[in-house]
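Quick one, T. Sequence first:
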Amino acid sequence: MRRFFLLIAVCFFINPASFAQYGQYDSAKTVPPFKIFDNLYYVGIDWVSAYLIKTDDGLILIDALYRNYPAHILQSVKELGFDPKQIKYILCTHGHYDHCEGADTLKKITNARIGMTETDWQIAEWKLQNDYASVTTRLTRDLVINDGDSLQLGGTTLKFYVTPGHTLGVLSIAFPVRDGHNTYNAFMLGGVGLNFTGAKQTEIYLKSMDRLMQMKDLQVNISNHPHTGKIFERARLLQTRKPGEPHPFVAPADFQNWLRGLKSDAEKKLVQEKAKEKS
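Structure tokens:
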């Protein structure tokens, strides 16, 4: 437990912008896996998330990391008491290397299906130019996910939304999480960053934010970069939670405030992008 708190504390002082670009020195750190809900676990690293969903009929992995970090996912799954070969699906939120590159390695070990949207499969296949595409691994197309699709495994149903902006095929996912007798609606916004160019794509991002802000049942923010959803901060609160206290990850008002902040940042970016195009 002391090791857990030490690593979490270290993560609070890491600025994600300080990480070197892919292909250069990688200063990422692994963190011990931890339970968030009765059916949801964190198996990612300090700056990129990966989550394990437990169902009655196997496991679902959201995002696959990159380079040698899939090995950390496999070890984390084992540490949590699960068999990695029970991973039936690997869902990649978008085609950037840090979220999908490791899916190739994990598929060879688990034989899981890999799911991604059509547009972002093209990034992962190297058919679309993208500065954040993998430079070492070309994924082989598998399961193509469309807006409105769903996936059922055991008694768990995941609902899929295509929310373009960060990439043009960002996959967002809604799924139930359990805390004792209580069930909540968790939501993964599959792409948050504004590290793209152009007024058109910024406008697309803003439309996705408007769509999400109209959804009334967003209770749990499961972010694919831990700092954006305060994953480690909430995990620390969860470790010290007393009986009867609310679950620190269940925070619908915080979720809406977060979305409003993302929209505000995108509106500022839109002004800047339009100014660039006029100059």
